[in-house]
Design brief:
This protein is mainly alpha-helical and about 300 residues long. The protein has a 3-stranded antiparallel sheet with strand order 2-1-3. Helix 3 packs across helix 6 and helix 4 runs antiparallel to helix 5. The longest helix has about 100 residues.
Length: about 300
C-alpha cells in the first residue's frame, strides 16, 4: 500500500494527502506537513501551491534554501539555512512552509536564519503521529456531537411541524362535523315542513271528498248545502257571530228513481207530493206499479204509499 493510500486510510482528505506528498519527501514529512496545516483551508493551500509553482524558477535551478536535498549538505559559514518568523520565532526549511504559516497565522514578517531545522526523530514522529490521530479522533467526536445535536433539532422541528399539521387537521375535522350537524338539522326541519305540508294536503283532500260526498247526498235528497270557506293555517281574529240565515223555501224536489228494469227515472215533483202520487206517476210513464220505496242513506223503506215525501 502506498503513502497516499495510507494517508487516506488514516482519515485525511484525499486532496490534502495529494498536496502533502507533493510538498514533502516522504510519508513522515507528509504527516508533519498535514499537522502544520491542518487548520488551513484546502483552497488556500492549493492557491498557495499554484502561486509557488508560478514564481519558482526553471527545473534544475538550485534551490537557495536546500529543500530539494541536493549536494553534500555542507554550507558556508553564515549561509541561511532556514526562514524564521519574527513574530513567533518558528523556523521553516522551505519558503512554501513559511508562506503557509503566514496564510494561517497572518504573520507576514520573516527573516533568514542560520539555524537549521532539525529533522524529527522516529520517536518524535511517532508521538506526533499519535497526537495527530488523537486530534482527528477529537474532531470526529466533536463533529458527531454536532451532528447529533443537529439531528435532535431537526427532529424537534419535524415534531412541531407534525403537531401543527395535526392541529390544523383536527380543526378542519371539527368544522366539517359542525357543518354536517347543521346540515342534518336543516334536513330534519325540511322533513318536518314537508310532512306538515303532506298532512295538510291529505286533510284538505279528505275535507274536499267529504264535502263532495255531502253535496252528492244532498243532491240525491233534494237538499242544498253551503260550501264552507277554506280555513288558513293561521287562525283569524275572532269576529262576532253572524245572525243565522233563514231557511230557504223550496217548492219542488228532483228524484232519481231506480226501477227493477234497470233504467232510472228522473222526475221533478212538488214538495207536497205523496209516495202514492209518485207511484202513480211511475205506473203512468213506465207501466210498473211499485209496492214500496227504499232510500240508500239513511237506509229506510216505505210501504205506506200514502205518506208524503219530505
Amino acid at each position: 500500500m502506498g503513502d497516499y493510500e495510507n494517508l487516506v486510510e488514516m482519515g485525511f482528505d484525499p486532496r490534502r494527502a495529494t498536496l502533502a506528498l507533493k510538498k514533502t519527501k516522504g510519508f513522515n514529512d507528509a504527516i508533519t506537513w498535514l499537522a502544520d496545516n491542518e487548520d488551513t483551508p484546502i483552497e488556500k493551500l492549493e492557491e498557495a501551491d499554484a502561486a509557488a509553482s508560478t514564481s519558482a524558477g526553471p527545473s534544475g535551478e538550485e534551490d537557495p534554501f536546500g529543500e530539494q536535498g541536493e549536494g553534500d549538505g555542507s554550507s558556508a559559514p553564515g549561509e541561511a539555512k532556514s526562514l524564521k518568523c519574527k513574530e513567533c520565532g518558528k523556523l521553516f526549511n522551505t519558503p512554501a512552509k513559511a508562506q503557509f504559516h503566514a496564510s494561517r497565522t497572518q504573520h507576514d514578517e520573516f527573516e533568514e536564519s542560520t539555524d537549521e531545522v532539525k529533522p524529527m526523530t522516529e520517536e518524535e514522529k511517532a508521538a506526533h503521529l499519535a497526537l495527530l490521530k488523537q486530534k482527528l479522533a477529537e474532531k470526529r467526536a466533536q463533529q458527531a456531537v454536532i451532528d447529533q445535536q443537529q439531528a435532535r433539532a431537526n427532529e424537534a422541528i419535524r415534531r412541531k411541524r407534525d403537531a401543527e399539521a395535526d392541529k390544523i387537521k383536527e380543526e378542519l375535522r371539527k368544522r366539517e362535523q359542525l357543518k354536517e350537524a347543521e346540515k342534518r338539522k336543516m334536513e330534519k326541519r325540511e322533513d318536518v315542513i314537508a310532512r306538515e305540508k303532506i298532512r295538510e294536503k291529505i286533510k284538505a283532500d279528505q275535507e274536499a271528498r267529504r264535502l263532495k260526498t255531502e253535496q252528492e247526498k244532498a243532491a240525491r235528497e233534494g237538499r242544498t248545502i253551503e260550501t264552507p270557506v277554506a280555513s288558513s293555517s293561521v287562525a283569524p281574529a275572532a269576529v262576532p257571530a253572524a245572525a243565522p240565515k233563514p231557511a230557504a223555501a223550496h217548492s219542488e224536489s228532483r228524484l232519481q228513481l231506480r226501477l227493477p228494469s234497470g233504467q232510472p227515472l228522473i222526475k221533478t215533483f212538488p214538495v207536497d207530493t205523496t209516495l202514492f202520487e209518485v207511484a202513480s206517476a211511475i205506473e203512468a210513464e213506465r207501466g210498473f206499479t211499485p209496492s214500496s220505496f227504499t232510500t240508500t242513506f239513511p237506509r229506510k223503506r216505505f210501504y205506506n204509499l200514502r205518506i208524503k215525501y219530505q
